[in-house]
Design brief:
- Pathway: Carbohydrate acid metabolism.
- It is a single chain.
- The protein has one domain: Aldolase class I (TIM Barrel, Alpha-Beta Barrel), CATH 3.20.20.
- It has an eight-stranded parallel beta sheet, sandwiched between helices.
- Strand 1, helix 2 and strand 2 form a beta-alpha-beta unit.
- It has 212 residues and is α/β, with parallel strands linked by helices.
- Helices cover 46% and strands 16% of the residues.
Length: 212
């Protein structure tokens, strides 16, 4: 298993960073790290995403896992890897991105929803299959899918909150990806956003610890 994926599986949570203002980026990731969340993905539909990935890699080095999300094309994958992404996360099954990741030795966590898509993603070499949108499917869906597809590492993404992250993990997810319920662009307009982010981070980490 790729050592990056091993670390993700130990963490069991990836923070999805979308549209985080540049002026707050490094501090926000520092708050996450200081409260137990050490894997983040910067979505490529964030303005300046590649620069943000490169900046975080320079700032945090090996202290944090910095990946790229919303990777769809081969060109996306190549650009993210050049920027320093340690892993790639896609919203859909994409052979182009899988090929680039495999050739570069970078893990890819590929988005899928149906059993057929999950199987195809696995066959294309996905290190983890991201089941999205989980908020519309629920933990029971993962449990049902894993009955015939046992052994497939699934990542729950979409609608994962501190109150239900444990349910997804108990249903069989190996980890979870968390977006706006942890880090929202709106938060940075508020005074004291650091305290808000720290509190949310701790709630996720504590909920996950109860399942371990």
């Amino acid at each position: 298993m790729n050592p990056v994926t091993e670390q993700v599986l130990r963490q069991r949570i990836v923070s999805i960073l979308r549209n985080v203002p540049d002026e707050h980026l490094v501090k926000a990731v520092g708050v996450l790290a200081g409260n137990g969340i050490r894997a983040v993905e910067v979505t490529l539909n964030t303005p300046g995403a590649l620069e943000q990935i490169a900046r975080l890699r320079k700032e945090y080095g090996n202290e944090m896992l910095i990946g790229a999300g919303t990777v769809i094309t081969g060109e996306d994958a190549e650009a993210a890897i050049r920027a320093g992404a340690a892993f790639l996360i896609t919203p859909c099954v994409t052979e182009e991105a899988a090929t680039v990741a495999r050739e570069a030795g970078i893990p890819v966590y590929m988005g899928a929803m149906t059993p057929s898509e999950i199987v195809r993603a696995s066959r294309l070499g996905a290190d983890i299959v991201k089941v999205f949108p989980c908020g519309s499917l629920g933990p029971g869906y993962l449990k049902e899918v894993l009955a015939p597809l046992n052994g497939t590492p699934l990542m729950a993404v979409g609608g994962v909150a501190p109150e239900n992250v444990g349910e997804y993990l108990r249903a069989g997810a190996v980890c979870a990806g968390v977006g706006g319920s942890l880090v929202s662009a709106r938060d940075f307009t508020l005074d004291g956003w650091e305290l808000l982010l720290a509190d949310r981070s701790r709630r996720y980490v504590e909920a996950i610890a109860k399942v371990l």
